[in-house]
Amino acid sequence: MYQLSQTTKRILGAVAALWVIGFFAIFGLNWRPLERVEVVHWANGHMMTEKLFPEFAKKFNNDD
Prior knowledge:
- This protein is mainly alpha-helical.
- It has one domain.
- It is built from 2 helices and no strands.
- The model has no long low-confidence stretch (mean pLDDT 81).
């Protein structure tokens, strides 16, 4: 079986340690509660305005 040299082991250990530190720095320190987000469908966003919505609802529901 192939043996890794001490230098290679140290480099791989340093890379692994930096990866773990970076992972916790990005995800651990930036953790905050999720904010509530209102999602409006991109194709129907213009219909949700207060003035247009009742008219679009009538046409959609075929209310005359």
